[in-house]
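Loading example: each entry is read as two labelled lines plus one structure line.
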Amino acid sequence: MARTEKKKDVVIVGLGWTGSILGMELAQDGLEIVALERGHDQDTVPNFQYPNMIDELKYGVRLGMMQKPHNSTVTIRRDVNETALPYRSLGSFLPGIGVGGAGTHWNGLNWRPQLSEYRLRSYVEERWGAGIIPEDMQIQDYPVTYDELEPFFDRFEHVAGISGMAGNVKGKIIEGGNPFEAPRSREYPMPAMPTTWDGAKFAEAARAAGCHPFPSPGGIASQAYVNEYGMQMGPCNHCGFCERYGCYNYSKSSPQTAILDALKRKPNFEYRTQADVLRVEMAADGKTATGVTYYDYKTGEEVFQPADLVILAAYQLHNVHLMLLSGIGQPYDPATGEGVTGRNYAYQMNGGYTLFFKDEHFNPFIGTGANGMSIDDFGMDNIDFGREGFIGGAYWRSGQTNGQPIRSMSLPKGSPSWGAGWKQAVGEWYGHSMNIGSHGSHMSYRGNFLDLDPTYKDPLGRPLMRMTFNWNPNDIRMTQFMKSKMEPIAASMNPTSMQEGFKKEGAMYDVRPYQTTHNVGGSVMGADPKTSAVNRYLQAWDKHNIFVLGAGAFPQNTQYNPTGMVGGLAYWAAHAIRTDYLRNPRPLV
Amino acid sequence: MRDVPGLPSRRTFLKASAASAAIAGIAAVPAKAEQKPEPVALTEYKPDCLTPSEWAFVMAAVARLIPSDGEGPGAIEARVPVFIDKQLAGDYGRAADWYMQGPHDAAASPLRGWQTPLNPLQIYQQAIPFFDAWCKTTHGKIFAELDAETQDKALTSLQKDEMKIAPELRDFFTILLANTKEGYFADPMYGGNHGMEAWKYIGFPGARGSYKEWVLKHNKPYPLGPVSISGERA
């Protein structure tokens, strides 16, 4: 039943952002490469075309671009004493499916973490002492510095086509940009996008409160753009269908708009869809991989794909799942603290205010995923953790992303959920509200981790991965701090009414409402093989021809959306492979 | 091509293109008729999956969840029952995309998401007779036969789960209400939001999808009505 394919130099598992980047970079060295994508093929035309793409029911509500839990999901429990239950229908997070992966349906928000975040444990210990770190918190330093990563952040931003306004170029602070960002070597590739009324109002209030608003940086083209691969983007028309949708306008950064057509022209690159990788196969000595075995949905058979180099470029959850299924790294055990694969799973702590203005018109359908104005005044670099009693930070943003009425219908507290009162409220309040969001960091803890579920299996017989996760008091204190700072700024805007949505002490993880698809950790990068699954080049410690890309590498979550870091790390790893590993394959550390 | 007063509209443009294409001897898609024929009356509608008693319940329930009186269309004018019937007859009703393998723990904390072994269609099929029986015991008649005020009371009891519905069915009110709002606001091609009246009522322009010139027109109401995915306009 198993078929064996012709050997390749490189096999890439997953064809989203990181798979496309590694494919493009390694193809330039003439290597024979195959990428295996478990989902379907898709491209701007015909899959994302106007008008069929901008269908809220099909894509926004029924989640047409997302993975089907029927084929692939996780089980979830809040602590080790609970029985994990399947994540049967999608809610809290939405992994994508198909070529381009989550890079097709993201909002486009693109950031670089702040300077303190790359060496968080050292930073905290130096300033406040190890005593302020809660006993069960497992924060770690990245094994790479910002200065080392800077050229690769820059590279990703210029490939992806990011619009924004620099606030710090080589240490020089630029008025109107983000003065708290890590110094960048040059401006963003495109000027910032204009903001809608909500962002403008927020910026004015924030400025009056002594904060430093700047246009939100994002992978949304503010003008025509051509990147280094010859890929073209067209200026965005603010259609208000970014998140959960593919862009019909070639305006949103994605593997499709930035890389794939150029990559498909390389004669030494091939990709196969509906190829679901079951496991990475190992050599007899266990020190290297020999390739991967996948299930070919087109022929219904298992296929062995031999390769010298294995790149795991699936979504964070799937990379960790494959590692657990294949025996890459020792599985993490929270009871002993030993093991690395699945360790330090982390998420994101978000909150915000909704403000209602009876007589103002926001036209919420005019939006982009990265719209509006942000502030970083409450970012990690700017908070006295010792004084405030938590470790973390957040960036705030106000900028409407869509006015799709099934899901984006904010009503003042006390409005009925149905009946004549509901109908009157939607007529009265649609288009008359705005949000300010706090997008916060999330630390890593002994008790939040990933392993294999003992009970539930997927249709191909693989045990589902089990997520053990709950909110922790440190991050609740962080988000409550944000609430206390945001409340007076929101009130200064004199809304008709306003209401908060911040998690409170004792909050339990609720898998139903969408929160964010920023699942991180589990294949953490680090300097110590006892507390990390991959080294500073994202190379598996115990199997040197396996590299594990993506947000699984984050030792804890940053306060920002992860894609900028994921892209930067992908170029960083690709550079190490091309300039060092290929001529002498070995453990690089 | 934007529909700005005084300028050629997208529809005019499409008609013109079709005409030039015809002149050039190329097969062209004919321009859509301005007026779509009125669909079959809800009382004559033949459901894809709902039985007559289920249809009667859905008709009665959505009429209270989004009533017809006051400004804006009600769920009946929006043809929400047709939407619900078609959704339940399709992938959504069958939970085709969801992980439905057991073991199931339907009584788990609601925070843990969908844990019933039933799909949405099965929940409607089992919860409607249960709720009707409760209405009969408590209010003397099945739901569809109660007066509007009593129906509102009964729906409130259902929302608060005063009748202690089985855990397998406990999401019934939640999905009924969600499906009703979906049918009210989804593109008309799914059977509800008839004539885009719900979009007109709140001021959502539907599938226009092009607002570049409007981004910086801060705090001014957007002037154009909606278009649908199939090209209807209102």
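Chain A is about 25% helix and 20% strand.
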